[in-house]
Amino acid sequence: MITTAALPQQPSVSAPLVTPKPYTAEFITSDGLSVDRLIELGTNRRADLHAARQRLAIAEGRLMQASLRPNPTLNTEYGSPQFLGGEAESDLKVGVSQLFELGGKRSRRVAVAKLELTKARAEVAAIERSVSVEIRGAYIAALSAVRQLDVLEKLIVANEELLRVTNARLNEGDVAPLDVNLVRVENERFKVQAIQVRNEFDTAMLQLGTLIGAETNEALKLAPQPDRPPRFDMGLSELSELARKTRPDLEAARINEELGTARINLAKANGTPNVEAGVAYSRSKSFIDFPPALGGGSFPNKDNSIVFSVSVDLPIFNRNQGEIASATGEKVQATREREFLESTVKRDVAIAYKKYRAAAESLVIYSTQIIPRSEENLRTVRAAYGLGDFSVFEVVNEQRRLTESVTNFNQILKDYYNALTELETAIGMPLPASGFTPGSTSVLPDKDIVPLQVDRSKLLDSIRSIERKTLSSKQTVKENN
């Protein structure tokens, strides 16, 4: 958080100051993509999410199959000795049989399939939440790099002006060559830091494009975060209760426990024998040979009949004991997993909440205590340097301290938004709007103390103004002498 007064404000010659275009200006615009829009694009575009959603189609197909009844069976038989050179006799049999499932197998099979479909929905929701968390993390990383790069670019502009001023004073014999070298080294150090932060920004943008399923040549523009981070005031107990009710993976664990019970019931039902009933029509064609005493000869004979049949498995050896034992073990396993996940959810919420509180308190301390005092110290040292009381070494040291404080502030601001994202992850849903304080919506004090978005033209105008005042003061001292 570097204010205009904290930047180098030294007397200089009247050379024009050049305001460079911010590196991130083409990527961060007011009409850019918000984080919610990025999440929407990611959930609609990503091929892996489309693949995950096919679990629903698979589960729906299994539910459809589970509700179907067994098909009837058509049996036909035909035999004749004439195929082996015998008489033209034949036997024909046509029958239909139907398997009837007993013990509630079909209804319990349907119950298992419905729970599997519900579980698949919860698992897909958990995957979608995981993707949204990754997108939020990349968005936060990109915006954090933007803030740090914005500070470094301002410092580079102001430090170049300090270098120009120091060179002018060297020509007048007011400072030693070491002062120029110190300022030059400091400026190059800022440039190296800017290169590293640009790389972090480019990496975050590439990662963000991958996470939303964008093409490699697709240019992304992001909407900036609010200058003043919002304050979230829900308590830990409320968040824990919300997580217990809404977290998708916990819901899937509960469904998996119910699924264990349903599978036990199905395994027991499968131990009940089924009944197969059938009806068949048979026709037999044969020849009766009369003895010579009765005149001899062969006469055809036809018999028609209808046969009813019922078959039942006898559960003497196999009563599905193995499947029942296996399903019972799965039920116990699901219960233990659900209990462990519940404790994990409570821990996740508590950790994320503590991180949020720590980041919020640190933001207030940095913005109201550390950075204002560092800025005041730097202003004092620079004013003394302008009058020749301090060397540029003290100016550089104070500037480094302030830069370190601003870097820490940006990191804490990043941690703050990451903590909000962790809270969303822990409760399994977006943070409710009712959880944010109405009216005063920032965690920072009411006074605007986040001037990271200082307009560069105003910044340089302020530097020139202070230069003119300092030159005027020096001219007055010379005239009095």
Description:
This protein has helices at 35-45, 47-66, 105-172, 177-211, 236-246, 248-270, 321-386, 392-427, 456-480; strands at 28-33, 73-79, 90-100, 275-289, 298-312. The chain starts with 27 loop residues before the first strand and ends with a helix. 61% of the residues lie in helices and 11% in strands. Helix 3 runs antiparallel to helix 4 (177-211) and helix 5 packs across helix 7 (321-386). The chain is elongated and about 155 Å long. It has a single domain, classed as Up-down Bundle (Outer membrane efflux proteins (OEP)). With 481 residues, the chain is an alpha+beta fold. It has a four-stranded antiparallel β-sheet with strand order 2-3-4-5, with no helix packed on it.
The arrangement of helices and strands along the chain is EHHEEHHHHEEHHH
Instruction: Give the integer mean of the pLDDT values.
Output: 82
CATH architecture: Up-down Bundle
**What distance separates the N and C termini?**
41 Å
Low-confidence stretches: 1-18, 448-464
Number of β-strand runs: 5
**Residues in helices, as a percent range:** 55-70%
Number of helices: 9
Domain module tally: 1
Largest sheet descriptor: 4 strands, antiparallel
Q: Structural class of the secondary elements?
A: alpha+beta
Name the overall outline.
Answer: elongated
In order across it, which strands form the biggest sheet? 2-3-4-5
CATH class placement: Mainly Alpha
Strand % is 5-15%
CATH fold-level name: Outer membrane efflux proteins (OEP)
Supply the CATH superfamily name: Outer membrane efflux proteins (OEP)
